[in-house]
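Need tokens for this chain, all 239 residues.
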Amino acid sequence: MVKVAMRIAYLGGGFFGFQTQKNQPTICGTLEAVFRSVGIFGACVGSGRTDKGVHASAQVVCVEIPQFHRDLKKLMQILNTKLFPFIKIKQIWEVEQGFHARFSVRKRGYCYVLAQRHSPFFTPFSHFYPLKNPLLVQEALQVFRGVHDFGVFMKSGGSGTSSIREIFHARLLKRGEFYLISFWGNGFLRSQVRLMVGFVLEIDKGDLGIEELKRQLQGERIFNIPAPPNGLFLSRVDY
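Here are the structure tokens for all 239 residues:
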């Protein structure tokens, strides 16, 4: 058996998240069904569990494959034909047996897409929200930088025992008709990014302020409504 990693992209709107669920279509469940159809029966392990409706442009999974699939380019072509149209494998490479798609990660990146113009064609991959004060949003995002206990920016049911995470950078970028809110960190809790974006958008509306954001980051729960899932992408995973 050979252990490989795969970098994949998917549109998450039609799936109930990444992790396998009984009687529900999920990314992992779909991948494993396709893997089995070509003689790959190992468990699929992902770098992170995206929620229902969340997308990825650079999710990473690892799985053990039989020796007869050593032609990785051919394997990728076969799998992509079966995964079309909502999941695509962008790269496959061989890894050491000790590699773990989740626990070997050094940095993760998420990107939240805000459409500045309403269009039904934007809706599957962005949240329509005309930003009012980009400079204020940029200032608010800087509050997240550093090591913090993000326990109040986590949905119940998250895995792990510690809610302490480090955010390396958080910034706002303008790209055409979209604003992108980008986060880099050593890890993220369940729905953490959507909850952070939700709070920042309340600041942009004028309903909350930066001082209230600082108070919540210190443990006072003030606002905990997440931004919609369709704007969120797992955008980068570094090992």
